[in-house]
């Protein structure tokens, strides 16, 4: 699949952990929808929210409000369960990213086993795509998983960058090999007609080399930005992230 040397690179901001802070005490503050609006004002191209089965952070009313109150695309992360598919079909977000989920995990751990779960995933992908949602599958940087995502009819794959980011943080030389896996996976996905996103664990130290992968057109970043906002504010955290993305991509700062 051909592409320009410098494709635009979008930033999706995940506001889950604003809701985590709210839910720790109950009530309405801090409001994740206000955080989404501030993120958009600061330069976010879209908003991501993960509606989990246990509602540990984002809740149903947050999704309904996001659909009504933000003027950028909403990317709904969710497990491929009957309940979540029904919610997505009702709320009609711009995009749906199917992710693995289990009750014990602190955060999403690894990509979907698309290859082994094709029978389970086929109907949710078809229903969501038929509703007009842009369907993404969150996968490891593995050609077989990417091929399976394409065969299911997904429009997008989001590459799991968590292992790379963890290796960089640990100072492990294996980070270079993992980055090579991400590059190869992005090139393969693009070549077979899939749009390529990336996300999980990205921070200021890791964003540059991921953003420099030319086939990647969107980064989804949440926990780090929300954490950094405690110290510098959300707008400043997003502004710095965007600057690092643009520098890595060779773009002129906006």
Automatic annotation (TrEMBL):
Catalytic residue positions: 50, 77, 200
Positions the record marks as coiled coil are none
Entry's InterPro entries? Aldolase_TIM, PyrdxlP_synth_PdxJ, Pyridoxine-5'_phos_synth
Entry keywords, A to Z: Cytoplasm, Pyridoxine biosynthesis, Transferase
Give EC number(s), comma-separated: 2.6.99.2
> At which positions is 1-deoxy-D-xylulose 5-phosphate bound?
16-17, 52, 57, 107
According to UniProt, where does the site described as Transition state stabilizer lie? Answer: 158
User: Which NCBIfam families does the protein's record reference?
Assistant: pdxJ, PRK05265.1-2, PRK05265.1-3, PRK05265.1-5
User: Subunit notes for this chain?
Assistant: Homooctamer; tetramer of dimers.
- This protein's name: Pyridoxine 5'-phosphate synthase
Task: Give the source species.
Answer: Amorphus orientalis
């Amino acid at each position: 699949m051909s592409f320009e040397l410098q494709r635009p690179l979008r930033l999706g901001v995940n506001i889950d952990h604003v809701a985590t802070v709210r839910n720790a005490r109950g009530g309405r503050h801090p409001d994740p929808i206000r955080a989404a609006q501030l993120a958009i004002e600061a330069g976010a191209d879209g908003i991501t929210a993960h509606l989990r089965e246990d509602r540990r952070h984002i809740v149903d009313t947050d999704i309904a409000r996001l659909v009504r109150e933000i003027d950028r695309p909403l990317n709904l992360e969710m497990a491929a369960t009957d309940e979540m598919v029904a919610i997505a079909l009702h709320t009609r977000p711009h995009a749906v990213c199917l992710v693995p989920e289990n009750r014990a995990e602190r955060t999403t751990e690894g990509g979907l086993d698309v290859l082994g779960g094709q029978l389970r995933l086929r109907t949710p992908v078809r229903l969501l795509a038929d509703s007009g949602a842009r369907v993404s599958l969150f996968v490891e940087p593995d050609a077989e998983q990417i091929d399976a995502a394409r065969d299911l009819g997904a429009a997008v794959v989001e590459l799991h960058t968590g292992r790379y980011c963890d290796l960089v943080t640990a100072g492990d030389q294996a980070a270079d090999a993992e980055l090579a896996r991400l590059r190869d996976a992005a090139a393969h996905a693009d070549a077979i007609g899939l749009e390529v996103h990336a996300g999980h664990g990205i921070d200021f130290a890791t964003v540059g080399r991921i953003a420099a992968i030319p086939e990647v057109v969107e980064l989804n970043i949440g926990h780090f930005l929300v954490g950094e906002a405690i110290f510098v504010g959300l707008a400043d955290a997003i502004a710095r992230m965007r600057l690092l993305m643009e520098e890595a991509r060779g773009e002129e700062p906006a």
